[in-house]
Amino acid sequence: MSTDEPPLPDPQTLFECAPCGLVVTKEDGTILRANQTFCHWIGFDSQALVGRRFQDLLTMGGRIFHQTHWAPLMQMQGSVAEVKLDLVHHDKHTVTMLLNGVRREHANGAFNELALFGTIDRDKYERELLNARKLAEGLLSEKMAADAALLDAQTQLNRAYEKAKRRASFAEQMVAIVSHDLKNPLTAIKMASDILAQGERTARETKLLGHISQSAERAQRMIADLLDFALARVGRGIGVSPTSQDLHTLVRQSVDELRMAFPEATLLHQSIGSGNANLDADRVQQIIGNLVANSVAYGDLAQPITITSRLEENQAVVSVQNHGPVIPASLIAILFEPMTRGTDTDSDVRSVGLGLFIVREIAMAHGGDVSVSSTPEDGTVFSVYFPSTAAAQ
Amino acid sequence: MDLQHRNNARVMGDGPATLVFSHGFGCDQTMWRYLVDHFTGRCKVMLYDLVGAGQSDLGAYDKEKYNSLAGYAQDLGELIDEFATGPVILVGHSVSAMIGALVDRQRPGAIAAHVMIGPSPCYIDVDDYVGGFKLEDIHSLLDTLDSNYLGWSSTMAPVIMGAPGQPALGEELTNSFCRTEPEIAKQFARVTFMSDNRKDVAGLTTPTLILQSSDDLIAPVAVGEYLHGVLPNSTLCLVANVGHCPHMSAPCACSEAMDSFLSPWIDPHVD
Predict the structure, then answer these.
(1) Percentages helix, strand, coil for chain A, rounded to the nearest 5?
(2) pTM (2 decimals)?
């Protein structure tokens, strides 16, 4: 050592005023000596600490931890490092410290030598980290619970969907089978009454045979409607096979046939524009048949029913107008829903309230739509629109 | 299931009886090193780590199974079946003493005698029973565990300057001792300190030696006396010792008491 360096403070001062807490204990933790720095941090004076056990200065958690962890460690490996402990200050508030300790054997026995460092800010930061971790873990477990619930709901939904699909397919099949089975006896009834009508009959017999024939026809229409309804509502939907058709010719043919079916009504056909449209001819005839039958049932037969076919730039329109009583707005809103009837009184007139629903379903299967207006001046007008995306010419 | 691997089981020595050592909360089987040599010459000795502790297979840790001491008792029963021969004497420290009592209840006759070191059937005060702790003390412990397992101190045992005055420990042992996964440590702490096994020990007739430290925060003398009162074939032996690990800090007093208690099964003569 060179002589021009200033002399160091004495070891006593170095120990007492070291920039960390220094404590020497017996192996059982009894404090033999504590430096001023530690005494200052913990709020006790040196004399008050000597003879007390170091672990008694800790919070209860720290004391259990001491017993179960670092006391055995000191014994086993003779040292511990970076143990974080909360000590209870004389004023009862806690002081967080980091502890390094070593067990050292001297000639006169073994001692635990402890060095302690205040770690307030670091502790605060670590607690924030800890809280953030707890929060993240909480959120994670919430997310996992939500995922599990979602999966569960999806499974249930899939199961319900499969079940619904099976039911729909069953309903569709059942309706198809029943329709088919009913058609045959009806056809036989109709044929038999037609053959009977060809012979010489009394007026009364002719009238009765006419009733039989008409009733059979009505039953056939109802079965067809029912089949369409089942397809549209629970099955695959009403299928259409559009081809290019001369709209006016198609509508004229329909109107001609309907004149035969409804001799009591006056049917007028009006055509506007010219050209072809992409339509399923049978289905369009069904639409016109349904709308005309409705007009006959609910309209004023003293006035004509007008069927208009109109070709516009972007669409083909078929509308049917009658002059019956105005349909109330509340009924208009649900008119195209199944099982809806114009009035309750005409229970005899037609089917089970599926006609307009089927009209709309057919229009929609063509990519089109339907509308209705009902006023005292213009009467009631049902219009069906077919977009001409693939219209010929 | 490879039990040896799962519980890091080690079998040593040979003799007419088997001493099974089961460590407590916080450490692993290396805590028995001061006591084991005393017995290996005279009987078979088995050491193991509770799943989650020491060098047990952490992959075997199942949060559901180990959510009560019954899961640990199941393991101990399996280990006894697999490795023990002759009468089995279970040496259980702290919570392991209760794990042993559970095995005894589940499989009467499987354990011939218990040596319970610092046992407590219930750590928390309930009604008239004094366990020594209140619920908030246990929460305080969980907090301390939390702040010491943040990551930077997860090994809990870095040797800062060798181990002066200590016989050198294998590095393997040093690194595993007291090391636990933070989540496992917390669950084990909760399971240990919230357990109430008073019904399981009451009236257990298996011969039992209670090694009670004269000054133990975790298992106070009153708790040792309570156990002595409810275990009809028990011997209470007070060991002059401060702390919860008399088998480490007062191994001679412990082995002496054990020798005399174990004489029906193990020859007390020391070579």
Answers:
(1) 50, 25, 25
(2) 0.63
